[in-house]
Amino acid sequence: MTGARWTKWVIAVPMAALALATIYPLLFTANVAMKTRREYILDRFSLFDSLHWENLTKAWTSVGMSRYFLNSVVVVACSVALLLLLGSMAGFAIGRLRFRGSATFFVGILAALFIPFQVIMVPLARIMADTGLIDTYPGLVLAYVAQFLPFTIFLFTSYYSTVPAEIIDAARIDGNGVYGVYWRIMLPMGAPALLSVGVLNALFCWNDVLISLLMMPSAEHRTLMVGVTALRGQYSDDIPTFASGVLIAAIPVLVVYLFLQRQIADGVTAGSTKG
């Protein structure tokens, strides 16, 4: 083999192994979800004999997952909308306006990215309790915004920094103020970043368990991922039903990723190149 072909094999084999390791848990979960309880006990790694869709129905209705699904949709939609609004405004201000202290503020945003949620978990819960926001939808939305806003600002700042200054100068010559430049020029130009960052934040909020479990202690206000953990407790001896709940929670994420994978990749690399 030539050196180029050896290089391709050296890269392809580890990537294929990584892809298989990523896909296998999902395939295993789907296989278990289609089994009966008896089939799983006899051999958990064998293929299902027939499709048992009743497991999905049982998981959906037994612990009120339809309610949890609606809770997740409402919270994620509100959180993403607020994150995009605040993040795009802050990113535009830091990336293009260059006000006094903007560099220091941006460094502070970068520092916030390295602070895990566990560090601020107790102070956040105390603040939310003191303001009466525990076990409320606005409280969970604000918690998500507080957690994911630094990442959102970082991506928008990186994106808006690549916009040529001549465009902003031309908009100001046409009589636009700061808000006019943002609403009429920068926001429409930032549509690719809005889509990419919106998808990423939606996935973050949808997959969250810790923040939701902390902010929503009552069963009525649980999100879908927390509801799946409750399903595990209720059906600890019925793994196919639990696997069905996991599959239900994963399907929206899979659909979003399959249709918007390019936007997700663009969001991760936003602002990494100039021009």
UniProtKB/TrEMBL annotation:
Transmembrane spans: 6-28, 68-93, 105-125, 137-161, 181-206, 241-260
Protein topology in the membrane: Multi-pass membrane protein
Pfam families: BPD_transp_1 (PF00528)
Alphabetic keyword roster: Cell membrane, Membrane, Transmembrane, Transmembrane helix, Transport
Protein's cellular compartments: Cell membrane
Similarity-based family: Belongs to the binding-protein-dependent transport system permease family.
Name used for this protein in its record: Carbohydrate ABC transporter permease
